[in-house]
Amino acid sequence: MDRPLLSLPTEVTVGPILTNSKNEGSKRLVFIVEDDADIARLVRHHLESADYETRMFGGTHGVLNEAEKAPPALFLLDIMLPGGDGIELCRGIRKHPKLAAVPVIFVTARTTESDRVLGLELGADDYIPKPFSPRELVARVKAVLRRFERPLPPKVTKIGDLVIDAGAMTLSVRGKAVQTTATEFRLLDYLAQHPARVFTRDQLLDAVWRDTAFVTPRSVDVYVRRLREKIEKEPERPRYLRTARGTGYRFEVPRTTSAKNNKDAD
Are residues 245 and 177 in the same domain? Predict the structure, then answer.
């Protein structure tokens, strides 16, 4: 009996851009960057069955250019790819002003803890090891997109040299705009709305990630480290994101300033 992924009625040539699904403007677009054509077809089949639009790429070439023209709702990236790798592509996405906030999920045969941590440190929002269940993959895509699409109350919080605009989901540090992913922003905003309160990693997972079946407490550590690199003058000696030893994290308001919360955004 043939495997289902080989029996899907589609023809794919492995190359820079494999194929497009039919254009449905109301559907959320997912870019699938995967050099194994069978796996790419399998992922496309299940995503389109779940009412997503897809674009398939057999390597890194052309992905950013196509994303500039039609930004996707989410990237699914393999790591080991022709013409580069998914890690470098993820770096490119996170540095791109138009794409930096788009969620990224790695789908890869690299399964060690160090690989997972590296992926999260680079800005990935989830990390799915191969082999995987197609149903689980779709569930994790939905979980990540729910996290990104959940609106925040339209407030501007000014603390020290930080300006956190929840309505626009923008962050300014010492007068300069700083790019964050949606998960980074939500974590920072949540902590800033509860200054001096200590949260465990599990509490932060429940509050920020919500769909916690696919993430671990270690993910919180990675995101806090990334935020410190973006907002702290000295990430190794943080003023804002402080560690509560043996417990978790808290947001500290610098002594020289006071938080200005609950200001409605224009």
Answer: yes
Of residues 77, 72, 136, 78, the one with CA closest to residue 99:
72
Q: What is the CATH classification number for the domain harbouring 235?
A: 1.10.10.10
The tokens of 78 are what? 């393999």
Q: 184-194 pLDDT, tens per residue?
A: 999 999 999 99
Q: Two tokens at 95?
A: 């540095």
What is the rounded end-to-end Cα distance, in angstroms, of the chain? 61
138 and 162 share a domain? no
pTM (two decimals): 0.73
Range of the domain at 55: 4-149
Whether 71 and 98 have beta carbons less than 8 Å apart is answered as yes
Q: Any idea what the CATH number is for the domain that residue 53 is in? A: 3.40.50.2300
